[in-house]
Amino acid sequence: MSKILLIGLPADRYTQPMLGLGYIGAALMNKGHTIKVHDMASENCGNIAQIEKEIKEFKPDSVGISVLTAQFTKAKEIVKAIKKLDTKIITVMGGPHISALPEYTLKTVSEVDFVFAGEGEISFPEFIKLHNSGGDFSKVSGLGYRKNGQIFNNKAEIIKDISLLDFPWKLLNPLNYNKGELQGYTAKRRPVVTVVSSRGCPYRCTYCAQMSVFSYHFRVRDPINFVDEMEYLNKNFGIREIQLADDNFTFYRDHAVKVCEEILKRKLDVTWALINGVRIDKLDTELLKLMKKAGCYYMAFGLEFGSPRILQHCKKGLSEDGLKTGYQNVKIASKMGFITHGFFLMGYPFEKEEDIDMTTALIKKLPLDRISIGMPIPYPGSEIFNYYMKNKFKSLDNINWDDYNEGNFKPIWEHLSGTTVATKIRKTYMMFYLNPVNMLRFLLKLRTLEQFKATFNGFRRGLLNTFLRIYTTK
């Protein structure tokens, strides 16, 4: 049996559980291995010296690191430090960034021994078993490795039944993730924690990189299994609110209905929020009523663009009828009392000023309580990353991955300038958040002191970002 240290790197803003590491760690524990998770996000520490101290004390045989694009530089520093301490420690990298660029990682990071693409709950334990016994690595799903001077990348396979995975809370303490700002920062009740009832997304939006991990395969957990986890968190840790990080909670209507019915059947005293952007065309009045009855109070909508031309260009997959129905669903949800949050994007590579103006007009039209306006960032694995490779980067060697830290990336556009995009974003934010009707509607939906405090802090930070963040072109 092995001793394995799993490292989660610090996030820029939000404190969310490293669910991927929790799931993988639980799978490894089931095979008899000794596992420790060093989660820099919850511990609010990105200090390599602390990791070195932990390695000296724990003496792991292997170290696995989950990596987002903005964390790649830090991850390289960590594996280099590990190898300086003990060259015998097996170093492994995984996560979204590595899943998109496994060969590049092995070519450019000499200190990493293996990489994983895709999901690791089955393949990582199999890899450890084969590594300990000298088996054939070619049989391990998603594994990338070097052999005789060559790099090999095995095809990643998805986990078909994600209900069979153990809860990640064997290794993660959900109470550790209530210290900072949450993604859905208007949490109604604490303690709160993020969970998932599904994985993946069947859509092919060009600005999204999820396919590098899930390859467009969408799977849902058994509703009973998912509500079992909610109940477990409530009874064992006192969790009072769940934030669902699903991309498509309502994609299968029957799944959403059964989850709600199971919550009601058990009379769980847990509120919940959909923080990641529900498809507007995958809702209806009766489903919204049931969700509200079951404790859902907050709903983010993936609206993105107001321009039909750009929606089609980015392959959002919404028909004219779907948009009409979707916008009506937003209005119905607001009227029912849900806190409504719209996710929007401005600065798509092919946008024109009139396209952005259509997004602003849509924001004015819909009864939203909150909005977030981002810029489409070309993460590895997304379709627009290929566009950037052709028109800006030319080579992976020309990319500074630190530029992917929040607010640092410099986009390119065919019809716009950085000044134009920044001005449009600022004016839209000001138009929305200084509208007394919007503010009053939002405030009337708040029910707890926690919500009022979080709203004030979020508004203050958002206002500062609106004025201080500067976007440039090339």
Strand order of the largest sheet: 2-1-3-4-5-6-7
Instruction: Indicate the low-confidence ranges by residue numbers.
Output: 470-474
Mean pLDDT across every amino acid position: 92
| CATH class bucket of the largest domain | Alpha Beta
- Beginning-to-end CA distance, first to last residue: 51 Å
CATH superfamily of the largest domain: tm_1862 like domain
Strand proportion, as a percent range, falls in: 15-25%
Global Rg:
22 Å
Number of strand elements = 15
Corresponding CATH architecture of the largest domain = Alpha-Beta Horseshoe
**Main beta-sheet annotation:** 7 strands, mixed
Structural class: alpha/beta
Give the fraction of residues assigned to helices: 40-55%
Query: How many helices in DSSP terms?
Result: 18
Coarse morphology: globular
Number of domains: 2
Task: Could you tell me the CATH topology label of the largest domain.
Answer: pyruvate-formate lyase- activating enzyme
